[in-house]
Amino acid sequence: xxxxxxxxxxxxxxxxxxxxxxxxxxxxxxxxxxxxxxxxxxxxxxxxxxxxxxxxxxxxxxxxxxxxxxxxxxxxxxxxxxxxxxxxxxxxxxxxxxxxxxxxxxxxxxxxxxxxxxxxxxxxxxxxxxxxxxxxxxxxxxxxxxxxxxxxxxxxxxxxxxxxxxxxxxxxxxxxxxxxxxxxxxxxxxxxxxxxxxxxxxxxxxxxxxxxxxxxxxxxxxxxxxxxxxxxxxxxxxxxxxxxxxxxxxxxxxxxxxxxxxxxxxxxxxxxxxxxxxxxxxxxxxxxxxxxxxxxxxxxxxxxxxxxxxxxxxxxxxxxxxxxxxxxxxxxxxxxxxxxxxxxxxxxxxxxxxxxxxxxxxxxxxxxxxxx
Length: 372
Ligand code: NAD
Ligand code: GLY
Description:
Elements: E1 10-14, E2 21-26, E3 44-50, H1 54-65, E4 71-77, H2 86-98, E5 106-111, H3 113-125, E6 132-136, H4 139-145, E7 150-155, E8 158-165, E9 170-174, H5 183-200, H6 202-216, H7 220-240, H8 255-265, H9 272-289, H10 295-307, H11 322-331, E10 343-346, E11 352-355, H12 359-371
Parallel strand pairs: 2-9, 3-4, 3-5, 5-6, 6-9
Antiparallel strand pairs: 1-2, 7-8, 10-11
Helix pairs in contact: 2-3, 4-5, 4-7, 5-6, 5-7, 5-9, 6-7, 8-9, 8-11, 9-10, 9-12, 11-12
The structure holds nicotinamide-adenine-dinucleotide (NAD) and glycine.
Residues 50, 52-53, 56, 79, 81, 84, 111-115, 117, 137-138, 140-141, 144-145, 148, 150, 160, 177, 180-181, 185, 188, 272-273 line the site of nicotinamide-adenine-dinucleotide.
């Protein structure tokens, strides 16, 4: 991997017919007016950000958008998964209406996955749909959440339960924005990078293993490759199955267990990526119990998740009936059908399958994972 400080801009295209768009990946993109040229014509832009990201990047994005719009407004939301709610969504609508934003107004999501998911949902529903652009500032958002058009807010009874499929017009990934990311958030994003290997590309898993220290050190060339390859894999999957009628569910490797951890611990206690990291190991372990992969594969994944600074021991959610609590939470997962939990399992390295598993076996995996 060359250690150059001047990386060129790379592009990944999402092919979805008239909803196709481009992901730009590079350094300094957030400050460059060119990054935002050629979007649908409009007089007004509204940037959605949060109380952490806005002080760092809002003024800079405003300056980059100024040549393209007569008015650039902003709304700053409270920060955190706990605020991925109707109340926060309404703050976006309040701002849009207070500023008399018309149906051509372009929304810009400046932040991580929480801001991106909420801005996308607001764009999908304001005046029945306005254009929006993702400007993701976390690793997780650059490699996953900003791409593919899933938008949502949480409900107290389930994560991401209220939402819409709605594609952005463009995704602009500025690698320099990752410099200010707290270390815990960097690790959380790497969970979503790691997941792409076992489900689609073992050569990428090899590459991550070789470069995990460079990624943890935020070497721009390593980050650029991780973001680009992750986006390519996601683009390929989303291009085949935009609305998750089948294949797209493989992108949820580790998420069935992960969502149970997030909900069971209370949103925000474990970061999404931390829960997914632990969930990757749990799902691999379940795959091994079903005879789909060997123990060495589970250990390989466990070690990588650990090297990425992520938890590999699952939390106890209920001292009296831990497996029961996990199973109850997982039944609320969107992949469940008629109460049967569907897991994304590894069916041989580089290949994923979505299927159920006996509760007793899942309970064994949970018990093992909580003491591992
Ligand atoms: P996040 O949006 O909460 O961001 C993490 C933290 O980092 C926040 O405190 C944020 O303010 C801060 N932050 C963001 N950028 C920063 C920067 N450059 N410098 C300093 N601090 C910065 O969390 P996330 O991990 O980005 O996203 C998680 C969310 O994404 C979850 O709600 C999850 O459900 C969602 N998600 C969605 C999809 C999808 O396909 N839509 C996929 C995966 C995850
Ligand atoms: N992050 C899972 C998906 O986009 O489908």
